[in-house]
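Objective 1.3, modelling of assemblies. Example input:
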Amino acid sequence: MRDESMVSGLLEGDPEVIAQVRAWIRGAFTPYRSKLSSELEDLEQEILLELSQALRSDRFRGQSSLSTYTKTYVHHKCIDRLRALGRRQWVQVEDLDLRSQAPSALEGIQKVELATRILKEMPESCRELWQMLEQGMRYREMSEQLGVSEGTLRARVLRCRKGAVELRSKLFSEKSAKKIDDA
Amino acid sequence: MTPTPQDPACRHVPELLPWMLNGTLSEDEEQFVQAHLAECESCCRELQETVEVWQTATTHIPSLALAEYAQGLEPQGIDRVAIEEHLAICPSCSQELDMALPVAVPTGVIDFTTEREKREAAKAQPWRSYAVAASLTAVLATGTLMWSLTGLSSSTVQSMETMASQPTTQAPQETAPPETSAGLLFADGFEDMSGWTRVVGLKEKSDPTRN
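Predicted structure (C-alpha cells):
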C-alpha cells in the first residue's frame, strides 16, 4: 500500500492500516523491551496518537517512507522515556533557590555544541566522574568503584567542577568575541 | 548565625553539591546542605556554578535528532558533525544510538554456518556430486552388461536405470523383486538399508531354452 493511502487510512481509522502501523511500532520497540517493559503499552498508544496528529498537521513531508518516519518517532519517544527515567531522582534545578537566576544565553544546538566542547576539553578523568554522577551513583559507590576514599573523591569532583567553570567562561568569552567580530 | 568563610560547613557543603543535584544524599545530608545554603551567600554561588557544570555535563543530543541520525535521515536542528563530535565523547548517547540503529529483520531461517564453512562446502560439493554420479553410472553399466550377457528381464534393467537416473539426494524407491524368466539370474531378495535397496545375492534359475 502506498504511503499516501496509508496516511489517509490511518487518519480515517482503517483497522488494517492501524494494525500495520502498530506492527511497525512494536517492531521498533525491540531494543527497549528490557528497560521499558512496563511502559511500552502506554507508549504505543501515545505514539499512535501523536503520529496521527503529526500526519493531520502535514508534518510528514514524504522525505522518508511512512515506515521509517514511524520508527524514527518510536526511537525518539523511547530515548526520551529512558532519559526521563534516568533523571527521576535528580533535583529539579527550577526548584532550587538560586540567588542569581541568570538565563542561559545559549539554546538548542548551541547548548549542545558548547557542552560538547567543554566535555572534550575536560580531562577524561573528570568526564568519567560527571558520567558516574549522571548515572545516579552515590559518593560511597563512586569511591569504592574508583578505589579512593570518599574525602579524596569529593575533593576531586570539586576540582573538576572548578576547572569546568573556568573552561566554560573561557569558551563563552571566545564565542562572544567571535560574535562581535562577525558583526 | 551567619556562616563565616572559616565555617567548616563552607568547606563541606560545596563538596556535597553534585550529589545533592543527582538526588543521592541521605536525608540528614540533604537537610544539612539546604539549611546551610539558606544562610550562606558564598555557598549559594558555589551551587550556581555546580548547577551550570551539571547542566553542561548532562546536555545530550536531542532524542529526535539522534533517532533521525540513526535512521539515516537528515537530523533537524543540529548538523551531523556536531552529532559525531558529541558521540565520540558521550557513552550514553552512543548506547542510545546503538538501540536506534535499524537492524536486519530475520527471515525465519537462522544460518549458523560460517563463511569459511560455506566456502569449503562449495569446494567439496562438485567432488561429491561427481562421486555419486560415477557410482550410479557404474551400476547402470553393470546392469546393461549383465542384461546383455545373461538376458536379465527388461524390468530389472529398467529399475536399475531408474536408480541411476534418480537425483543424488533422493533415496531410491524400494522395488519389488524382479520378474524372472527361465535361465536368468534373479535377485534372491531385497534388503532395505536406510531407504536404499540392496540386491541380496543372485542365483541362477534353470533355463529351459539353453542348450
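Strands of chain B lie at 185-193, 196-204.
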